[in-house]
Amino acid sequence: MSTPARKRLMRDFKRLQQDPPAGISGAPQDNNIMLWNAVIFGPDDTPWDGGTFKLTLQFSEDYPNKPPTVRFVSRMFHPNIYADGSICLDILQNQWSPIYDVAAILTSIQRGCLVRTSVTTTGECVKLWSRAGQQTKYCCISVLCRVLKV
């Protein structure tokens, strides 16, 4: 069955294959255009430099009028990424627009979450540190060092 959402996702996939943004890849799962796997590589000179971060994107039949549900599968430490992997990013919520395609979504996540961080004070880092597991504390140390310019 070819619905408007599925047609749009096929176009998005074609575009992503033909002109992939740097540090980003994504594709639908076998036999399910509505569920995608994606990878974002940590940008240079950030706390996530050298990291490989896996995500899933779940689209509804309302796409592109409604955003997909996007979650990081890879565990990571970030103030805008919840323990379940869901992402606090305006374009996935109240700033969504049907003009966004999969490439724009992934690029926004890369730039909005992996380049900029909202942790700006030592106190914020300490609060986040206390909630972080052992695996995620490396990134907190990196962020703290950048904040303190150590």
From TrEMBL:
- Is this entry keyworded Protease? no
Task: List the SMART domains.
Answer: UBCc
UniProtKB keywords: ATP-binding, Nucleotide-binding, Transferase, Ubl conjugation pathway
UniProt cross-references to Pfam families, sorted A to Z: UQ_con
Highest rank taxon of the organism: Eukaryota
Query: Domain UBC core, which positions?
Result: 4-150
Q: Which CDD domains match?
A: UBCc_UBE2A_2B
Q: Which PROSITE patterns match?
A: UBC_1, UBC_2
Q: Which residues form the active site?
A: C88 (glycyl thioester intermediate)
Q: Which GO terms describe its molecular function?
A: ATP binding; transferase activity
Per its UniProt record, what Gene3D superfamilies does this chain match? Answer: Ubiquitin Conjugating Enzyme
- Keyword Repeat in annotation: no
Q: Which PANTHER family match?
A: UBIQUITIN-CONJUGATING ENZYME E2 (PTHR24067)
Family the entry assigns: Belongs to the ubiquitin-conjugating enzyme family.
This chain belongs to the protein called UBC core domain-containing protein
